[in-house]
Amino acid sequence: MPRKTTRRETLQKSGAIAGLAGIASTAGCATILGGGGSSAGSVTVSSKSFTEQKVLGYLTLEAIKQNTDIDVNDKIGLGGTVTNFEALKNEETDVYWEYTGTAWATLKPQHDKVITDPQKIYNKVESEFENKYDITFLKRAPFNNTYVLLTRSKWAEQKGITSISDFAKWVKNGHTDKTVVMNAEFEKRDDGWPGVTKHYDFANAAKKLNIKNVSSSLTYQVVGNGQAILGSGFNTNPKIVKHNLTSLKDDKGFFPVYNPAPMTRQAVIEENSAIKKPLNQIANSLSTDTIRALNKKVSIEQKNARTVAKNHLKDEGII
Q1: Number of H helices, E strands in the chain
Q2: Which overall architecture, per CATH, does domain 7-144+258-315 show?
Q3: Which of 169, 183, 225, 277 is the 20 to 30 Å CA partner of 216?
Q4: Which secondary structure element, helix H or strand E, spans residue 103, and what is its range?
Q5: What was the pLDDT predicted at 38?
Q6: Does residue 109 have a cis bond before it (omega within 30 degrees)?
Q7: Mind listing the pLDDT tens digit for each residue in 29-54?
Q8: What is the spatial distance between Cα 50 and Cα 54, in angstroms, rounded to a whole number?
């Protein structure tokens, strides 16, 4: 029986396709990378191909470059999850930021059980990857790029709705003549809208809502313009800020955790221990509001990702 597509694979669909396309080239050879892998005093930094990952990649590259004598090679934007992991495992690259939820559910051995406790899932993937691959994680960032339900900030404040439980209660009290927007995948999956309405005990009332399918990229605008009362999105998307939206607190812990952390081989740390301090400092500096602002500068304001990363490091006193 084929394995069910994970939520994170849906989120990173384009990147995952690129990763699968590139795996044949990366596995066992470094041709696609133009060389790579570390020797003592040399580290190759990679990332996935979307905005947030490029920011994380350049934060890593610049922090190592400015704080150590280690030579740093740039493979930012290498590809999807599979491409980056295979390159790291095969010693073609040395460090990239992986999300704990992705490591848990998408990378082998893959787990279906949802873990909503940030430290618990971090401990599990750290232990599992160290034992299976001799790969470890440095400090995780506090921000969580998970799924969220979004509404207009002004409306939420007026209604006193801050959590999914609050919204569920509001719908059950008879407010069912409203429009909710999401992509078709999220509407149908048990780990999407059907699951969250069941988990928060408003599945029957939710059936009376007007559900409209829009693309993930348009959800923020549609909710922000008042064309829908609620939409699904991702927690660190800068369009949340652009359209004055607020994410409802997942107070009963339905959605999984996606904290990013630098992932590297244990041998890389042993040979280049100086990278640990600056990378851990980066993690400490990245709150949800901070990463949204950095993402916004790159994806909406069209600023250079490397410049944005360097300026953040300077502002935080890391370089």
Answers
A1: 17, 10
A2: 3-Layer(aba) Sandwich (3.40)
A3: 169
A4: helix 100-105
A5: 52
A6: yes
A7: 333 444 455 555 899 999 999 999 99
A8: 6
